[in-house]
């Protein structure tokens, strides 16, 4: 019919993301103010988050995300959050048809879609600007200094991870207390020393009975710092003491959460409402499927954006790009922390000619104790591109891929991501003279490289031509 008008494109771009996801029949699970669904490729635990109050969506196991309806629809249907050409226009038209937007063409023709009332996203509160690299490090270092590692976390690190208390202390593993008064007290002391932590992910200004106050946000757990190759802490993840419990469905059933406790069950084949239920009634069994509780993510970022609706006046997201982690042996880290500089300055403690790529900060920390080499870690395989720039700055002779053992066997998801990472990394690194290799081991000997090495085994290193 001709070219679509800019007004139509803007309406598609600014559609309410939750409304769009519901129109796309996404299996949504509400966790607080966010809604989780499954990322492309399939997974057991949903890790793609839609945040209506922030007007954004994010694939926490990958690098995709965005603020527009077009980016979300294109991700789902074209596997890219930045569609171009025909894919872009087709995404716009599809959103219009799903969400009740009249498609207007530049030649004056129209295509009406009146089956549902269009819902635009609300005006979004501006997310606080993330603090500078130096500010982040200063605040995080002071925050970790003020906190301690609880006996239960020390026991976990020692008995499960094979990390003794002295190493845990050097690595600054600390506990985020469940007690809100304790958090407030420690943040108050930090603020007295450094000023307000505005723009530092993890710290929020909350409405209070006696006025706004700064505190730390997040579920209780073990705080794990992410350091860059200059040993500056750029963010933290929390290993939760208690994983969130998500309401899941199977078969022909779909769940729509009304709030944390109440939900609607829908027949995905017919669109008919089966009924409304409460968490206390779970598990539920039907002829065409089941509804049950499944544990959510084990780790989460220490961060929170402003949300006046929930009393959070100031805060900051972990940001884009998210941090990577540079893991080195504890002895090297101790000297590095005292004397500053780049990781190159500690070649007598760490071999910088070989750099390992992997996932998970704890796994990298553990493995580096055995290899005495640098391990650059990302939260998930899909985020491997975050490691390109620090690797180019380090300029090692060799990079070894050491993602989890399921990367070698999981055909539809992780394995494909690792293969794609290898192919793209070859184009980026081999022209610079950096050799590539992959670490292989039987999955039954350990899921991660840390498990393998803690069990007394070593991987087979295979060169990549």
TrEMBL record:
Protein name per the record: DUF3854 domain-containing protein
Pfam annotation, one family: DUF3854
Q: Would you indicate the residue range of the signal peptide?
A: none
Record domain DUF3854: where: 397-454
**UniProt-recorded Gene Ontology molecular function terms:** DNA binding; zinc ion binding
Q: In its UniProt record, which GO terms are filed under biological process?
A: DNA replication
Q: Which InterPro entries match?
A: DNA_primase_Znf_CHC2, DUF3854
